[in-house]
Write a structure and sequence with these properties.
0% strand; 435 residues; 79% helix; single chain; mainly alpha; Growth Hormone, Chain: A
Length: 435
């Protein structure tokens, strides 16, 4: 019997290791995309609804690009598509920083380009992880990757915040322009990092999906459970990426404070991720998933209850714990379901990845729409305070759905295994002739 507690780097293929290295390099870009683009919009517009509009434009671009990516995979090497996804994130930031004014047209344009970047990156990343790892190694894969990302995410925001605010503690027009110049320097560095990640990635060897058809509209009932989870996950993604920046800029008015707050607690989260990834087993995923959801709910609860600097600090700390814990459980659950159903239905794995993204899109649209609706009909402060709490409460339903999904998956997997054994069993002919 394989001891899952001893899973380590030796269990990964060379291509899987290169994928980890590539994602490690690109991880230096993600905190900038997730946090400081939103803070840049807030600094130059002081309008939370513009941040959410930008986020909505991203979420419109992602599923469209997922669909386009499906067609391109039949003609273009997956390495080129994955690399292009990373490079486009730099292009989007360059476009954003070139805007003379943060207007709606510019926001939508930058958001759509970033959505294309995420679409190409995540569509191919999910497939690459699926094709280069096994179920028994995925807890460790995501634990290791999340550990690395969290360590980077604990230092990059602090360094960027310090750089942006160094010598610019006041808030007059000249200082604001100097900070914006700092953003442009960071954008240049981001573009160079995406270029380096793209070069490193090309040292790996990766196969294209096994069949050309990838667009389906009818799926197994087990996949419908997975789609329910994706919609609930998307609810939080609707504005959870930009919520920290909006809250920090509202209560602390400084990228320096934003960077420091994100760094606090991130190292603790990183250690937790490494331990969970190293020693947890597939059977622990529901417990880990539940802890992540409860942590997210508590983060939203304290933000809504207090809605002050203390509430924001508690929110940030719990969110830093919740997000990686959710990911370390959610992604292996998703990939295992794809493993099982792709064999059962004899379909391209990418067809499930694409369909899953549309589930996320529905959730993201509802989540962002909830914020914009409250902001428009009431005000932005009420939206920042209570929209998160509404979504955090709804997400607790994911625990029940995940429990049902894992039970159905286990049953289906056993049936498949029994069928394979039956098909592989040789038929022994009767030695007595019937003639």
């Amino acid at each position: 019997m394989i001891d899952l507690a001893r899973v380590g780097l030796r269990d990964f293929t060379r291509s899987a290791k290169i994928l980890i290295i590539t994602n490690t390099i690109y991880a230096f870009v993600l905190p900038v995309i997730d946090i400081f683009v939103a803070s840049y919009i807030m600094r130059n517009s002081n309008d939370p609804s513009k941040v959410i509009l930008y986020q909505l434009a991203i979420y419109v671009g992602i599923p469209i690009t997922f669909l386009i990516n499906g067609y391109l995979l039949n003609k273009v090497n997956v390495k080129k598509l994955f690399s292009l996804g990373m490079l486009l994130s730099g292009v989007s930031m360059v476009f954003m920083m070139s805007l003379k004014e943060i207007d709606y047209f510019g926001l939508i344009g930058a958001g759509l380009i970033m959505g294309m970047s995420f679409g190409l990156y995540w569509a191919n990343r999910d497939y690459l992880v699926l094709s280069t790892t096994q179920d028994r190694t995925r807890n460790f894969y995501y634990g290791l990757e999340t550990f690395i990302y969290t360590i980077i995410a604990s230092t990059v925001p602090f360094l960027i915040g310090w750089y942006l605010m160094k010598g610019h503690a006041d808030s007059d027009t000249m200082s604001n322009e100097a900070v914006n110049s700092g953003y442009r320097v960071i954008t240049t560095i981001v573009f160079l990092i995406t270029l380096l990640a793209s070069i490193v990635f090309h040292f790996g060897t990766y196969d294209k999906p096994k069949s050309e058809k990838f667009l389906y509209f009818k799926f197994h009932k087990l996949w419908k459970k997975m789609l329910q989870l994706s919609v609930l996950k998307g609810l939080a993604q609707g504005f959870i990426v930009t919520a920290p920046a909006m809250l920090m800029m509202k209560f602390f008015h400084s990228e320096g404070a934003l960077g420091s707050a994100i760094s606090i607690g991130a190292i603790i989260a990183a250690v937790i991720m490494l331990i969970l990834g190293k020693y947890s087993k597939p059977k622990h995923r529901l417990v880990i998933f539940s802890i992540g959801l409860i942590s997210f709910f508590l983060a939203a609860f304290f933000n809504g209850l207090l809605f002050n600097t203390t509430g924001v600090i508690l929110f940030m700390f719990l969110l830093l714990i919740a997000r990686p814990i959710l990911d370390i459980a959610y992604f292996p659950i998703q990939l295992k379901v794809i493993d099982v159903l792709s064999k059962l239905e004899n379909r391209n794995e990418f067809s499930y990845i694409l369909n899953h993204e549309f589930g996320l899109f529905v959730g993201r649209f509802i989540g962002a729409g909830t914020f914009l609706g409250i902001a428009f009909f009431v005000n932005a402060d009420i939206a920042l305070r209570y929209a998160l709490l509404i979504i955090g409460s709804l997400q607790l339903l994911s625990i029940l759905i995940a429990k049902q999904l894992l039970k159905q998956q286990a049953t289906l997997e056993k049936e498949l295994l029994d069928k394979e054994v039956l098909e592989e069993t040789p038929v022994i002919s009767n030695p007595i002739s019937t003639k």
